[in-house]
Write a structure and sequence with these properties.
alpha/beta; Rossmann fold; 9-stranded mixed sheet; 3-stranded mixed sheet; binds adenosine-5'-diphosphate
């Protein structure tokens, strides 16, 4: 069955399905799709935030119908709402952390790697930290939740689509000894690019629920940049062991990083450490070190806020080239200068994870 046949079959599968407002799914102005790409079918239903509960059943029914389409490798139906000035009710900060989705029950530690803004090297850091943990002999997964700029496929050199198991759950792909999943492997970049807040969250929630991670010592979540609803939803929807904040030394980035720290604290997620990326530039010709953005900002800020400082990563051409080629630096040269820095950070992270939760809290509070 080719793509066009699958799309016709998808439309046929949705035929007869009616939205709670009484209009058929096919042809409703609220619905965009179905879209078919390489066996994956997606559909978006536009709602207002207060309609979320009423439309949950239709969403699930549409998704089940699409999944049953012959040759379908996976289906995703998301509810999308325009951002309102107030958060939708399900996004209010809850007093208690919800139980983790049962699918993550085999994962001992879930760690979010976050940054207050994009482009600070969060994904590069996530991958190399994951590889550093793996070098310690741990079983490690990495989930790229950066829906709008998924970079994991490039960083890890992943190609193709994830396999679907007999239970219809997605199997993570494997690269450099890591288990990996990215939205970039599931939907076209252009499709995800136009998604708005609630749709992004819905996609993230489904990605968490529908991937069979099996047993892992650590699952690293490469968070979307920023501190909005999507980040909050992940922090609340997964039983995070802690968060690592990546920041460049500039003040502005630090202000953003501070926001990130405040967000995790608000939902009782311990900050396991702050990493300063692009801390200084090492000239490839003369080997001299240049403090382009100043230095020590993240270290000083970490101390001020009473959170552990995991160290600094220089700005180097070598690191960028390694990332772009799908051969992350820790996989390529674990014993090298950069490899040693990341592995050291991974070791510190693992010690913090294994420490009593009380200890982490105390460290954070500077007790
Ligand atoms: P983010 O996930 O925060 O958006 P990325 O990890 O995708 O950031 O990094 C953005 C760009 O900067 C990428 O091209 C990456 O290769 C490059 N980069 C990240 N950290 C460094 C570094 N320490 N030295 C050189 N280039 C880096």
């Amino acid at each position: 069955m080719d793509d066009t046949d699958r799309l016709s079959a998808a439309r046929a599968a949705l035929d007869g399905l009616v939205l709670p407002d009484g209009t058929p799914v096919l042809g409703s102005a609220r619905v965009s799709g179905p879209i078919e790409a390489g066996g994956r079918i997606s559909l978006a239903i536009s709602i207002t935030p207060d309609e979320a509960a009423a439309y949950a059943e239709t969403r699930a029914a549409a998704e089940a119908a699409l999944r049953a389409v012959p040759g379908c490798d996976g289906a995703i139906v998301v509810l999308t709402a325009e951002k309102s000035s107030t958060s939708p009710p399900n996004l209010k900060i809850q007093d208690k952390k919800p139980a983790p989705p049962p699918v993550l029950a085999g994962v001992t530690h879930v760690v979010a790697v976050a940054s207050g803004k994009g482009g600070v090297g969060k994904s590069t850091t996530s991958v190399n930290l994951a590889l550093g943990l793996r070098a310690l002999g741990l079983k490690v997964g990495i989930l790229d939740a950066d829906i709008h700029g998924p970079s994991l496929p490039t960083l890890l050199g992943l190609h193709g689509r994830p396999r679907v198991g007999s239970d219809r759950r997605l199997k993570p792909m494997q690269s450099h000894g890591l288990f990996a999943m990215s939205m970039g492997l599931m939907v076209d970049a252009e499709t995800a690019m136009v998604w708005r807040g609630p749709m992004v969250m819905s996609a993230i929630t489904q990605m968490l629920a529908e991937v069979d991670w099996g047993t892992l010592d650590v699952l690293i979540i490469d968070m979307p940049p920023g501190t909005g609803d999507a980040q909050l939803a992940i922090a609340q929807g997964t039983d995070l062991s802690g968060a690592v904040i990546v920041s460049t030394p500039q003040d502005l980035a630090l202000i953003d990083a501070r926001r990130g720290i405040a967000m995790f604290r608000k939902v009782d997620v311990p900050i396991l450490g702050v990493i300063e990326n692009m801390a200084h530039f090492i000239c490839p010709d003369c080997g001299a070190q240049h403090e382009i953005f100043g230095s020590g900002g993240a270290a000083a800020e970490a101390q001020r806020l009473g959170v552990p400082y995991l160290g600094a990563i220089p700005l180097t051409m070598e690191l960028r080239a390694a990332s772009d080629s799908g051969q992350p630096i820790v996989a390529r040269d674990p014993e090298g200068r950069l490899g040693t820095i990341y592995t050291g950070m991974a070791r510190a992270l693992w010690s913090a994870l294994r420490a009593e939760p009380d200890h982490i809290q105390k460290t954070q509070l500077g007790v």
